[in-house]
Amino acid sequence: MSVGDCCVKGFEWDGTPTGKTGRLPGSDNDTYIAGDETSDAAVLLVADLFGWTFNNIRLLADHYAREGKVTVYAPDFFGGEVIPSDLLVSEQYDKVDLPGFLERNGREARENEIFQFAKALRAKYKKVGAIGFCYGGWAVFRLGAKENQPPLVDCIVAGHPSLLTKQDIDEVAVPVQMLAPEIDLMYTAEFKSHTFETLLKLNVTFDYQHFPGVEHACFVRGNEKKPGELEAMVRGKNAAVDWIKRFLHEL
């Protein structure tokens, strides 16, 4: 599974992030940090192709931290490279070298780095969750794989994943929440069916949420003026908050 133009289309939201930039002890990644670092629980937010500086990602991190009562870390996993967000206004998508970007920042190039960051979080916090959109979707499934002993994360949330494989789904071993737009060339009907059927067989706790009438990227680059997209953004955010609260806090 690759990526397409839908992975760089959408809208940038208004608002000013309230977190800070810094580095997690044990990591060399520049990181956006939202929430109180003294929390017992943390969330690793693996961004889409626009990366850790994207305003929408930082605003989402603020929401997750505030409403989920966790510390949220959105690291730079692209080695300082950024797809400029003004592309969303100019719509000059042909100027983005997606094949080159993915060669430098694809799964093989970045998986170990993402794993190491999760391990640093696990050393600092009692509970750790992972949320990934588009590019980040494959990463959170890998973080939740059964091969990781002890587990790197306690739960995952994936929204309109790209670069995901059926093997990733087959090997997940932690509670999974899927946020799935109806229209998605990256997370196809075949993959959706495989996800549902496989998670049932694995007996993994999961929450599959279908969002009719909306497209890939709606949760991180949705247009609040487009019918259905504001509702999807709000519902998707609330669902992720409820999921991390359920598995990262003692009930």
UniProtKB/TrEMBL annotation:
Residues 31-247 form the Dienelactone hydrolase domain. This is Dienelactone hydrolase domain-containing protein. GO terms for molecular function: hydrolase activity. Signal peptide: none annotated. InterPro entries: AB_hydrolase_fold, Dienelactn_hydro. The lineage of its organism: Eukaryota, Fungi, Dikarya, Ascomycota, Pezizomycotina.
